[in-house]
Amino acid sequence: MSDLKSTGPQTADAPTPEDALHEAAAYAAREQVHAPGGPADGPVLAADGTPLKRSLNRALRRQKMRALALIAPLLIFVLLTFIAPIADMLFRSVENQIVSETLPETVVALADWDSEAGAPPAEPVFAALYVDLFFAEAQKLHTRLGTRLNYEKTGVSSLFRKTGRRVGRFDTDTYTDQITALDPGWAEPATWVAMMQNNGNRAALPLTARAWDRWTAYLASEGDDPAKEDIEDVLFTTLYLDLVATGGSGAADARIAQAAAAVGGFETVTLSEQFAAADKDWLDPEVWGTIKAFAPNYTAGYFLNSVDMQKTPHGIEARPENQQIYMMLFKRTIFMSIMITLSCILLGYPVAWILANLPTRTANLLMILVLLPFWTSLLVRTSAWKVMLQQQGVINDTLVWLGIVADDSRLVMINNQFGTIVAMTHILLPFMILPLYSVMQTIQPTYLRAAKSLGATNWTAFWRVYFPQSVPGIGAGSILVFILSIGYYITPEIVGGTTGTFISNRIAYHISSSLNWGLAAALGSILLAVVMLLYWVYDKIVGIDNVKLG
Amino acid sequence: MADTSSNDAFVEFERVQKSYDGETLVVKDLNLKMPKGEFLTMLGPSGSGKTTCLMMLAGFETATHGEIKLDGRPINNIPPHKRGIGMVFQNYALFPHMTINENLSFPLEVRKIGKSDREAKVKRALDMVEMGDFGGRRPAQLSGGQQQRIALARALVFEPELVLMDEPLGALDKQLREKMQFEITDLAHRLGITVVYVTHDQTEALTMSDRVAVFDDGRIQQIAPPDELYESPQNSFVAQFIGENNTLEGTVKELSENLALVELDDGEVIDCMPVNVNKVGDRTKVSIRPERVEFQKDRLQEGAHLLKATVKEFIYMGDVFRTRLSVAGNDDFIIKSRNAPDQVRLKPGEQIEIGWLPQDCRALDA
């Protein structure tokens, strides 16, 4: 049994599933030793005749369940407080219900409009927009929609805000006046309440019925009674439009038939003119194209935006040169993260080596020095670099005093990439040193001695024997440093200036300043995907099994 | 047995001293000459300086004073990788990230030996330790004994004339250890290499070596072939350290060329071989091997001196009986008797008389 246990780390305490696996692996290895010819015939059977694999699984199941029960509290905690919010946040990168929820009639009416025709849509679309905007304005939703669409086309925000103020004062009271003149009963809310309870009426007046439902829902949300509120012009407008369209056929009320007979002679209001009067941009097909392009519930718009593309009424195209910023930021973030990781390896490797080869007492003392930065605030450390690196700072002063640099040509070392790399290397260095140190500690010095006794020079012994064994530490440290730096925010914000900021600074900007959460989510998703891709590549090349933290 | 008086020593330590802290000497004035082809074991308790000596020879430690010569050439200032000495480490130190083949071809690669040559040599070395089928594996996939063989093959693959082994069998179980002891000596003699072997296991030292150097307190206490070491220890440390030994303390009463009369502390006087006593009146420790003590009168030689003894304990050990006696105030006097059909089994409390030949009873330093 003793030589079977040599394939993995063994613990002195009670057996774990891990032990069983090691043992199984050892058995497998021994099988190979004894039968080098090829695989054994058929599966190995346990004493009771069941395949050994199955009985082993059964034996391990209880242990697995127990292990699961032990991690369950943390798992649930993480799911609720971490995974779920992140999933929700990432979901925002494609979520786009705001258009279809705010402008439901318009979205439907726009379906038949050809955005390539170069003309604004026909009157019914404006009528639908009128209905939608009326309710949006009542619920103060039109500004939000304007903001959303403004991400895609500038000027839409003010267009919506401006039109929202005007939509209640459109000349549609012409219809109100003409219809109430036919029968004063139309002005009574009770008439409408009764009329809209009849399915025949509703079928005859579909647009009105939908508008009425939104009206009553809105009043209900305000705590008002539909039977007591005055009927708005918008409902008379929809009534007129319905009567013109359907002729009121199938309606139960005589009042409807009477109105239907009369509408032919009504004085009409052209809603497109009303909108154009409010803002002539409504005649711009680009505006309508944008609305139509972003009508679906889910959109790739944010993601396109994140890679400097845009979804226009004419399809997907690159953004104008002067608006392209995200690809550059992504590239810069990755490039600088790689630079930071490399500097951390270069600076951290010798330190870890020294630490691992010193006597424990001295090593512990030095380890405190390595960890010391952890105990100071991140902001303090970053600000200290500002003091060090700025043009009137310590380093420049020293260089000038030494005469290496002229006073009028002080080095620019901060608010650029150099400053960010220096400060972040300093801050992330412990994350490189610690895994390196713990891996190096496990490399016995006899390996180096053995290599030298076999004839290797110091360098060959290091490069062929020591270094390969320390690669897992470099891998672990690099993954830590790279992933931390790719999403770093505070330090680039403080010392990065304009050329040294990361994509995360842009994400933060969209989260807290521009409030374009969808774009922030899309950028974040891409960042996550990049990290996972790199992780996958790393796994393919180096192998994630080779990552050791100690 | 190797010729110990040879003048052209292959390995030579000349007045070598070593101190780590500048205050105490770990190795004190070491002088040692080893002829080519000898299997020399450095034996001693831990901290006796034997491993330090080995490391100085390998080049991992520098001698504080004195000179180490290899084949007549001082090597004090030659770095380890240029000494061309093969070495087997206690924990084998097989490179875990390389396969067995890569491990073995490493010393050949750094010597810039061509690929086909390398492969041939690696194969030969693997066959030599009967591990020919294991070249593609990694060290972690081998058992301790297999790793041990690979470590041996790696130390031999570049054909060094001198191989150092630092407690190479320490991690193996008893049976495997005995098998490997035989294999190592066999291989060493077959290849004609010179071996310096460090161990703290005296059985290993006695069974494997041409000569054994017993270390204690930074000095070689005695350097001799195994039989001589066991039968004629030069001082009481060696007598105690090698094999089982009974010690009786006393004072020298009379001293001549080959006989010393020693008065034991309880007044008994016995005949001894004077080995390490200088003059009458010196305190001495008398050493007798347990298997040389007889208690059956018919087996004792005429004129043997008899001492009274009380049986304290009888232990049955299979091939031998081990009996603890109380003799001349020493309650830990052990005798061993072979388990033969006519052998007597002593009972605790029994009063007996024991005796031995004067030449088996050695008067050593106190």
TrEMBL record, chain A:
Keywords for this protein: Cell membrane, Membrane, Transmembrane, Transmembrane helix, Transport
Gene3D superfamilies, per the entry: MetI-like
Stored InterPro entries: MetI-like, MetI-like_sf
A Gene Ontology cellular-component term: plasma membrane
CDD domains for the chain: TM_PBP2 (cd06261)
Domain of life: Bacteria
Positions of transmembrane segments: 67-87, 334-356, 363-380, 418-439, 471-490, 517-538
Pfam families linked: BPD_transp_1
Subcellular location: Cell membrane
Residue span(s) of domain ABC transmembrane type-1: 330-538
One annotated GO biological process: transmembrane transport
PROSITE patterns in UniProt: ABC_TM1
Membrane topology: Multi-pass membrane protein
Family: Belongs to the binding-protein-dependent transport system permease family. CysTW subfamily.
Protein name: ABC transporter permease
TrEMBL record, chain B:
PROSITE patterns linked to this entry: ABC_TRANSPORTER_1 (PS00211), ABC_TRANSPORTER_2 (PS50893)
GO function terms (MF aspect): ABC-type polyamine transporter activity; ATP binding; ATP hydrolysis activity
Residue ranges occupied by any ABC transporter domain in the UniProt entry: 11-242
Highest taxon in the source lineage: Bacteria
Residue ranges crossing the lipid bilayer per the database entry: none
Gene3D superfamilies: 2.40.50.100, P-loop containing nucleotide triphosphate hydrolases
Catalytic activity: ATP + H2O + polyamine-[polyamine-binding protein]Side 1 = ADP + phosphate + polyamineSide 2 + [polyamine-binding protein]Side 1
Record EC number: 7.6.2.11
Key word RNA-binding present: no
GO cellular component, one term: ATP-binding cassette (ABC) transporter complex
SUPFAM superfamilies in alphabetical order: MOP-like, P-loop containing nucleoside triphosphate hydrolases
UniProtKB keywords: ATP-binding, Cell membrane, Membrane, Nucleotide-binding, Translocase, Transport
Alphabetical list of InterPro entries matching this protein: AAA+_ATPase, ABC_SmlMolc_Importer, ABC_transporter-like_ATP-bd, ABC_transporter-like_CS, Mo/tungstate-bd_C_term_dom, P-loop_NTPase, PotA-like, Transp-assoc_OB_typ2
NCBIfam families: potA (TIGR01187)
Subunit structure: The complex is composed of two ATP-binding proteins (PotA), two transmembrane proteins (PotB and PotC) and a solute-binding protein (PotD).
Family: Belongs to the ABC transporter superfamily. Spermidine/putrescine importer (TC 3.A.1.11.1) family.
Record's function text: Part of the ABC transporter complex PotABCD involved in spermidine/putrescine import. Responsible for energy coupling to the transport system.
Protein name listed in UniProt: Spermidine/putrescine import ATP-binding protein PotA
Organism this protein belongs to: Antarcticimicrobium luteum
Gene name, Swiss-Prot/TrEMBL: potA
